[in-house]
Design goal:
The protein has 248 residues and is α/β, with parallel strands linked by helices. 36% of the residues lie in helices and 23% in strands. The protein contains nine helices and ten strands. Strands 6-7-8-3-9-10 form a six-stranded mixed β-sheet. It has a four-stranded antiparallel β-sheet with strand order 2-1-4-5. α3 packs across α4 and α5 packs parallel to α6.
C-alpha cells in the first residue's frame, strides 16, 4: 500500500488550563488521492484537528508526519503544498475577484505568467469570468463561496482542506464546486472534507473518520460503515455512534 500523505500519531490537544483534551490520542492515516471526510457533532474536535493539520495550532503532544511523492516533509515544507478553504470567507471584500486571486497567488509565490493563466482558468471554471473585475463585496453568497474556493486552489496544492465548502449556496453553485473538486481529485489532489451536509458527504467521500469527544470512533469506507452498523445513511450512522443528545 502507498505511504500515507498525512499520518497522525498520538495527537492530543489541551487548550489553556482545560482539564479535558479537545483531542485525545488521535491516530489516523490519510492516503494520496483520497476524498477523506472528517465528521462529528459540535465539539467533537474536528476543527482542532484540521487546525493542527494546517499548522494553525500545535498539538500538546504527538506528531503529524507528511509525505509528498514518498518524500517526508516537515510542517514548514508541507505548507506550500496545502490549500485551506475555510467556512468563514477569507478574502478581501474591497478587492475584485481577480485581484484577490492575484494577491493570494502572489503570496504563495506563483510566477506572474502562471498566476494569470490560473486566475483566468479558475474564474472561468467557477463561472466568475463576467464579474472578474467587480468587488467581491457585491457578490451573492454562492459567488463569494466560489471565490473562497478559488483562493484555496490558486497555487495548485497537493492537499486541500475543505470546511463546509458548499454551505449556504444554491444548487448551481454547489454543482460547480463539487464538479471542480471531483476533477482535481481525479488528477491526484487529496481532499480532506468536513461538513454538516452528511448526505452530500456520503456521495462525495471515499473514506471517512467519525469523531466524538476528541476521539476517532470509526474509520472506514462509507459503505462498509453503513453495513457494519446496519444503517441506511450517514445521518443514521452519526446518531447511532454519537447519540441524540444536543451539543453546544
Amino acid at each position: 500500500m502507498e505511504n500515507p500523505i498525512i499520518e497522525i500519531n498520538n495527537v492530543t490537544k489541551y487548550y489553556g488550563k482545560a482539564t479535558k483534551p479537545s483531542l485525545d490520542d488521535v491516530n489516523l492515516s490519510i492516503f494520496p488521492g483520497e476524498k477523506f471526510g472528517i465528521f462529528g457533532p459540535n465539539g467533537a474536535g474536528k476543527t482542532t484537528l484540521i487546525s493542527i493539520l494546517c499548522n494553525i495550532l500545535q498539538p500538546t503532544k504527538g506528531a503529524v508526519n507528511y509525505s509528498i511523492d514518498s518524500n517526508s516533509l516537515s510542517v514548514d515544507e508541507i505548507l506550500p503544498h496545502v490549500g485551506f478553504v475555510p467556512q468563514d470567507f477569507a478574502f478581501y471584500a474591497e478587492l475584485t475577484a481577480k485581484q484577490n486571486l492575484e494577491f493570494f497567488g502572489g503570496a504563495y509565490g506563483v510566477e506572474p505568467k502562471i498566476l494569470k493563466e490560473r486566475t483566468d482558468n479558475l474564474l472561468e471554471i467557477l463561472g466568475l469570468s463576467h464579474v472578474a473585475n467587480k468587488r467581491v463585496k457585491t457578490f451573492s453568497g454562492g459567488m463569494k463561496r466560489r471565490v473562497n474556493l478559488a483562493i484555496g486552489l490558486i497555487h495548485e496544492p497537493k492537499i486541500v482542506f475543505l470546511d463546509e465548502p458548499t454551505v449556504g449556496v444554491d444548487v448551481q453553485s454547489k454543482m460547480s464546486i463539487i464538479s471542480l473538486l471531483e476533477e482535481l481529485n481525479a488528477k491526484g489532489t487529496t481532499l480532506i472534507y468536513t461538513s454538516h451536509h452528511l448526505r452530500e458527504a456520503e456521495d462525495f467521500c471515499s473514506r471517512v473518520a467519525l469523531m466524538d469527544h476528541g476521539k476517532i470512533i470509526a474509520v472506514d469506507e462509507v459503505s462498509n460503515l453503513l453495513t457494519e452498523h446496519s444503517v441506511a445513511n450517514m445521518e443514521e450512522l452519526m446518531i447511532n455512534l454519537t447519540g441524540k443528545q444536543l451539543r453546544d
